[in-house]
Design a protein that fits this description.
Order of helices and strands: HEHEHEHEHHEHEHHHEEEHHHHH
Radius of gyration: 19 Å
Shape: globular
Oligomer: single chain
Mean pLDDT: 88
Structural class: alpha/beta
Distance between the termini: 14 Å
Length: 339
């Protein structure tokens, strides 16, 4: 509990004073054992230019000094990095809220160590059958992920499933809600992020997204362990304006040390490079300040990472719900802290 109170205090410093990001999101590798149609990461050409272990440690040390509260490791498949467990342990020792996003294929192998160093493990699972293997172009990934989830839970790890919905799995929501309940995990649903030139042909239409989130709403009303907030569900049924707080919450570092926007529909330009500048220098740079202003006037993204956090960051949303008996924002925060 003391750890979470400390995180809350540092978040308040960022939100009301420095306005600097609080989550260091790190694509540790572009290498992956899957070839998902919905993803463009494994197609990148930066797999052989990853930050070395000591470079990652220095980044984490500085992030701690700069008031960051969380470290989120993803990829590619992050557990393909030989030093991934060492990096997670270092982040844990610095008292970061530590999270990893994985396809689950290595959870059986590393469950005991992950349970000791990771606050929340996100497992990417998009269908409750071997159709998931077809979507990921990796035979056996479905069974490995299920076994890994069960093993990590037995080891005391906290887990949430992330289900990405596209044209490939339109009927996934009810099935995945029941699976999450059966496994004793939380689950979040997301419409597939569009990567131009890669996956536009399997993106959801607005009507399909609306229908999908009607199903998500029904699951939540019935008491299934759905993490998506009611605000986000309504947003996907009746879109509304929001101010994107991405650069005020997340800082995305790529495997080669480059800093770029985190899933931004407006720009994907390189904003900085941690092999050429410190985190502190970047946060005081003109490129970062320009991106903060550009993003604040944008609401093009539909994924939960952008929308949920921007709504949470909004003073208007926060104050409107502060005195509600069933405070959805507080519940959403507690869900993530105690998954």
């Amino acid at each position: 509990m003391r750890k979470y109170l400390g995180i809350g205090g540092r978040y308040a410093i960022s939100r009301f004073w420095t306005h600097n990001p609080i989550f260091l999101t790190h694509s540790v590798t572009a290498k992956c054992n899957c070839r998902c149609q919905i993803c463009d990461v494994w197609r990148r050409q930066t797999a052989d230019n990853e930050l070395a272990t000591d470079e990652v440690f220095r980044m984490l040390d500085e992030a701690k000094r700069l008031n960051f509260v969380g470290y989120i490791a993803f990829g590619g498949e992050p557990l393909m990095r030989p030093d991934m467990l060492d990096i997670l342990a270092h982040a844990h020792d610095l008292r970061f809220y530590t999270s990893i996003i994985t396809n689950g294929t290595y959870l059986l192998q590393y469950a005991e160590k992950i349970a000791k160093t990771v606050d929340l493990t996100w497992v990417s699972l998009d269908y409750d059958s071997k159709h998931h293997d077809t979507m990921r172009a990796h035979p056996g990934v479905y069974e490995k992920a299920l076994k890994g989830i069960k093993d990590l839970r037995r080891a005391g790890g906290r887990i949430a499933i992330n289900c990405v919905v596209s044209q490939l799995n339109l009927d996934a929501v009810p099935k995945m809600g029941k699976l999450a309940q059966k496994l004793g995990t939380r689950i979040a649903f997301d419409p597939m992020e569009i990567f131009h030139g890669c996956n536009e042909q399997i993106a959801l239409t607005f009507n399909q997204r609306k229908q999908m989130f009607s199903q998500v709403a029904q699951l939540k009303e019935k008491g299934y362990p759905v993490l998506n907030s009611k605000e986000y569900i309504r947003f996907n049924q009746r879109p509304q304006h929001y101010n994107c707080a991405q650069p005020r919450i997340f800082l995305k570092v790529y495997e080669d040390g480059k800093i770029k926007p985190f899933w931004c529909q407006k720009t994907n330009e390189i904003l900085g490079d941690l092999r050429k500048q410190s985190l502190s220098d970047f946060l005081h740079s003109p490129s970062y300040e320009k991106f903060r202003k550009t993003a604040w006037d944008c609401c093009l993204c539909k994924n939960s990472c952008q929308v949920e956090t921007s709504m949470f960051y909004s003073i208007k949303h926060f104050l409107m719900r502060l005195f509600q008996v069933n405070n959805s924002i507080l519940k959403f925060t507690l869900d993530y802290a105690s998954s």
